[in-house]
Amino acid sequence: MRLFLKKSYDETTIDEIAAAVEISPSTFFNYFPTKEEVVMLDIYDPMMIALVLNGPKDEPASVTFRRVLDMLAEVLEQERDLLLTKGRLMLEIPELRARVFEEMERSHDLFASLFAQRIGRDPDDFELRVTVRALIGAIFEASLRWMKGGGRGDLGDLITRAPDVVDAGARLDALHRSAVPPGGSARPVAQLAGRRRHRP
Q1: Residue 5 maps to which CATH number?
Q2: How many Å from the N-terminal Cα to the C-terminal Cα in the chain?
Q3: Number of domains the chain contains
Q4: Which of 6, 26, 50, 84 is most buried, judged by most C-beta within 10 A?
């Protein structure tokens, strides 16, 4: 990242990156197919997967997701400067901006699959995928706001607040409650969500 800031992303070569970390270019390509991957590397997925799948079985889905956000907020705060550098590059470099949306799709598929397994629904379930889309979009908007603001404010606070704006946690819980029980049939999620809203 220091090379990208010092020379610019476009002018930094693979040979220079490899030399900076004392490896050969061929070894670099064993880990990173392209220069873009250096910036787009995501090391948080294994932690998030473990948190979702290893949580208490009776834990509401919204609580599971909140634990993931709390963990992510803590880790991101520790890597604030690195994230700000990555964000600056992603906003300024066209090919990296394009990759951001690819990463959003990857995150969407990952979380849809994780929560499908967690709450007992199909990964292609329409309502689940729409709910996860809202969650990912909320987190993306929070991160983008922080990056465009030059890192001002608390990124962790923005990330944990964003899903509440769209009430996505309640939708996850409604999906969880409406999962098909053994020998039963699924109840409409919209009906469940409506009951939750009107409960005294």
Answers
A1: 1.10.10
A2: 53
A3: 2
A4: 84
